[in-house]
Structures are given as structure tokens and as C-alpha cells.
Design a protein that fits this description.
Shape: globular
Radius of gyration: 17 Å
Strand content: 15-25%
Structural class: alpha/beta
Helix content: 25-40%
Number of strands: 10
Number of helices: 7
């Protein structure tokens, strides 16, 4: 069993509304909403995330962690504290004052960077982060997310030359919810119908 999935349900980080739905950042309506930002309030789940992420950091030879503005920053911070791998954070676009930086912290050319984010849906929001890291001269071939909604993000990143690593997926989270009476059979079917239509 994926303990992170269990905590996602326990701490109410997955919300279901098959009638009203939730508006996503893309403007689309979804019967489910994953609130990974809420997980940062719980040190036990953050420790679980850091433990799993540490394995990926080691496997990928990561030299710098880059938290995506803003949701990826607390995760990158926690993982950095656990692994002792240096951390930076990256803005969606360069700030318009001072040094006009897009990256805060030290990111040397040639270093292997792991982009850290809370979740991924279609993956389009990662484009500016990847571009910013590569413009710095550093290398980014891996992205770590806490949650993958499995709605095209993995394929999108692959096209950018990025391998996606996720600690929890929508399919296993829904399966857990159904099995443990967190989700009704009716809502499960409606969500599956939405996902199928979204992929067509």
C-alpha cells in the first residue's frame, strides 16, 4: 500500500464533487480536486514524501533541487533538508525588478537539476520552469511530483526530454478510496467517465 495515498485521503487533500465540480487552473471543470498544498501542514506526510523523494534524488544523480513557484518550494525545501542536496526555486517568469532573476539560489552550469512540483495534470505549466533551468546552463532531465493526475503530463514532459517521477497517482488514489469506502461506486464511475472523455 502507498502510505502517501492513504495520507492524501486522511488529511482531506482529495476533494470530490461529481455534481458541481472544481475549476482547475486550466479553466476546465473536474469532479476531483487534489490539494497537495494542504499536505505541507503535516510533518508526518512530509517526512514520507521526503523519504521516497530521497531515493529518486539518489537514482537520478541529482545535484540541485529546483522547487517550482510556488507549490513546489516547500517540498523542495523538505527534501533538501533530508538529502542535504542544495535547493533553489524557480519562478514562472523572471521578476521585473532588481536582478530580474528567474532562479533564486545558486544554479551552476552543467549541474544536474531535479524539478520539484506538487502535482502535474497536462504538464504545460512545467514548460517555463524547464526553459528557465536550461537557460541557466544547468541540465534538467527529471521532474518529481507528489501527485500525477495522469492526464497527459508524463507524455508532455517526455516530449521535452524529461522523465516524470510521481509519488502518488490518481488511479491508485481512486482505487484506494473505493476499496476503503472513501469514495462511492457511483462517484467512482462518474470520475472514470470524466477521465475517459478527457483523454479522447
Amino acid at each position: 500500500m502507498n502510505s502517501i495515498v492513504e495520507k492524501i485521503w486522511e488529511y482531506g487533500a482529495i476533494l470530490v464533487s461529481t455534481d458541481e465540480g472544481f475549476e482547475l487552473a486550466s479553466g476546465h471543470k473536474s469532479p476531483i480536486y487534489i490539494d497537495c498544498r494542504s499536505l505541507i501542514s503535516y510533518p508526518d506526510v512530509m517526512d514520507l514524501i521526503a523519504d521516497e523523494a530521497a531515493k529518486i534524488v539518489k537514482e537520478t544523480g541529482t545535484e540541485i533541487l529546483a522547487g517550482g513557484e510556488t507549490a513546489g518550494i516547500p517540498y523542495a525545501t523538505w527534501i533538501s533538508a533530508r538529502t542535504k542536496v542544495p535547493m533553489t526555486y524557480i519562478r514562472r517568469r523572471p521578476k521585473g525588478y532588481g536582478r530580474t532573476s528567474q532562479i533564486e539560489g545558486s544554479m551552476d552550469a552543467g549541474k544536474k537539476v531535479l524539478l520539484v512540483e506538487d502535482l502535474i495534470t497536462s504538464g504545460y505549466s512545467k514548460d517555463s520552469f524547464v526553459e528557465g533551468i536550461r537557460n541557466s546552463g544547468a541540465t534538467v532531465e527529471h521532474c518529481l511530483v507528489v501527485f500525477d493526475r495522469e492526464q497527459g503530463g508524463r507524455k508532455r514532459l517526455k516530449n521535452l526530454g524529461i522523465e516524470l517521477h510521481s509519488l502518488a497517482t490518481l488511479s491508485e488514489t481512486l482505487e484506494y478510496g473505493l476499496k476503503n469506502n472513501e469514495l462511492t461506486q457511483e462517484d467512482y464511475k462518474k470520475i472514470q467517465k470524466y477521465l475517459k472523455a478527457d483523454s479522447e
